[in-house]
Hints:
- The protein is of the alpha/beta class.
- Strands 4-3-5-2-6-9-1-10 form an 8-stranded mixed beta sheet, sandwiched between helices. Strands 11-18-15-12-14-13 form a 6-stranded parallel beta sheet, sandwiched between helices.
- It starts with a helix and ends with a helix.
- Adenosine-5'-triphosphate binds near residues 59, 60, 62 and 63.
- Keywords: ATP-binding, Helicase, Hydrolase, mRNA processing, mRNA splicing, Nucleotide-binding, Spliceosome.
- This is RNA helicase.
Amino acid sequence: MPSMASNNSSTHTAKSEFYARRQEIEKHRKALPIAAAEKRLLEEVRNNDILIIVGETGSGKTTQLPQYLFNGGFCRSGGIIGITQPRRVAAVTVAKRVAEECGVPLGQKVGYAIRFDDLTSNSTRIKYMTDGLLLREALLDPYLSKYSVIIVDEAHERTVHTDVLLGLLKTVQKTRSLGARDIVNSDNKKDENGTLLEKDNGIQNTSILKHCQSTKLSPLKLIIMSASLDAQGFSDYFGGARAVHVQGRQFPVDILYTNQPETDYVDAALITIFQIHLEESPGDILVFLTGQEEIESIERLVQDRLPKLPESKRKLLVVPIFASLPSEKQMKVFMLAPVGFRKVILATNIAETSVTIPGIKYVIDPGMVKVRTYDASTGIEPLIIVKTSKAQALQRSGRAGREGPGKCYRLYPENEFEKLKDSTTAEIKRCNLSNVVLQLKALGIDDIVGFDFIEKPDRMAVIKSMELLFLLGALTEESKLSDPVGHQMSRLPLDPIYSKALIVASQFNCLEEMLIVVAMLSVESIFYAPREKLDESRTALKSFSSTDGDHLTLLNVYRASEEFLEKSKQVNSKEKAEKNLRKWCKENFINSRSLKHARDIHSQIRRNVEQMGLQITSCGDDMLPFRRCLAASFFLSAALKQPDGTYRALSSGLTVQIHPSSVLFRMKPECIIFDELVRTNQNYIRNVSRIDYLWLAELAPQFFALQE
Ligand SMILES: Nc1ncnc2c1ncn2[C@@H]1O[C@H](COP(=O)(O)OP(=O)(O)OP(=O)(O)O)[C@@H](O)[C@H]1O
């Protein structure tokens, strides 16, 4: 019968496509430079409990090593191979790729887990995750007992989470080795109960050892990996651990430099995009920029210029990717462009390491990156734009040459490259440490200064952050985590001040409102004001603005958007309603991407506080409790008006000014709290709300009584 015949043939086609794809993948895997080193690497891991692996970008470290270890029997007794990544997008996309290479559905043998998104199951043996997530797992399972191997990938990035994790893993690894060895043959020192005595990294290891002995935990294999790693430094830190190099890269990447330094790198990037598009052979372009605003401005400029090109040259598809973009939008960059189109990806350093973006042949690297810095003496955390390190430049160029030869356009002269720092300053050296301290305390590590970090944070920064946590009520006078506030705060994946605000809000009966405001404060630029439509955008803002300040204004925006969406959903499909909301955002000069991100964060933190058993109630129309709650939570950033119209920040003594984007810019109330201090040519404060000065001593006596 014809229909039978066609069914059969379509099954045949599907089958042969499947086998063709598997063959293609197998061929690709065998061609990777790391493939020649498979046996050697397995031997090295068998012989060394800690191993450092350095290999070129694209050589196959992240995708292949876990598979080699799995096939080499490292999961035989049920253990999991955990691979950490500094970024969520890398954890997700690499896991997808490896699942495909293994020919299994994602979430079975191969899975990933990132904050609020866990695609693993009992059968998962190769698990990709963010370094922050593994740290959170350590809170519940200090021995990381389900892992037989942990690979810390992209260790060169030296995020705070990676650094804390390295210190923690050093201890866990040592303890698990000792525990396991002791079961077999013990001549180690023991206490009267026969438990090994060992105190390391501030953790009382006797209990860990006891556990290791009772559960017969096997030693943990620890692998530190990167393409651009100071192998010696890492080896020294891990007591002379063995370092191996995997030679070779799959495809060449031509590096091109400019003759002269560029005065405006954004403009230079724009010109280079069009030059490549008009003159070079097919292949997609990846451009590294410093942030959402820069990306959105180039996106508009490219769109503006496209219609001026000849019809045949207009097939250019611009796709942005930055951290605060919802993940389903981030995933768009991994989709192939429609036939005949060239894709231009505008990315922050989120796409710098680990990821393979299909189709990328050209990389444009202006050599700049936005980083958060920290001034412990004032508590200011300005975001500044700085030059990348050599390691970052190498990673960026490594995003090309993954599927074929590539080109990287560095928008600076070659001699400038030589002047760059070898590696990026570790984040722990330049950030507010209150979150780190809170996490370490929650892990039972009380001696923060004595903790064996690969690079010690500044002592002053540690002390400042302990002070801050004490003032927020998270630490006791003995510097222990307080109960319940400190413990609750450590469970919330937020900046400690926001976590505290949520806890306080449950007492002020306005948690409903605070959840929204914290979500809105957690995203970049809710409002946008294009220069050519400044008046219109101001008028739009007025319809939401509250004379009490920006926090209530943000609340109004969120609620108005929810109301709009609900109404739209009553008469439209969900997709249509979402589309209408984007239109509504545009009309009201609201950044729909940021708003969507805030809605996601809102539902996530709402789930968190529900799990913690906090009371979610609303203060209704009376905003007084909410404003008092703002004062009780943000008292460390209270400021008083001075005769000249500037403000004095009460905790740092700095002179600050309300940012022109604030609804209180002209009103200038006597006493305010603010969320953020931005340092440009002035100290500007953003997200400002009016409070009553007398509330400060009443609601934060621990701070304002100390001041007198
Ligand atoms: N999602 C993907 N789609 C297509 N090919 C991929 C994908 N992920 C990896 N590959 C291929 O596998 C190769 C090895 O990637 P892998 O991430 O394992 O390298 P790596 O050595 O870890 O690189 P890096 O140091 O840059 O993270 C890539 O160069 C690419 O050819």
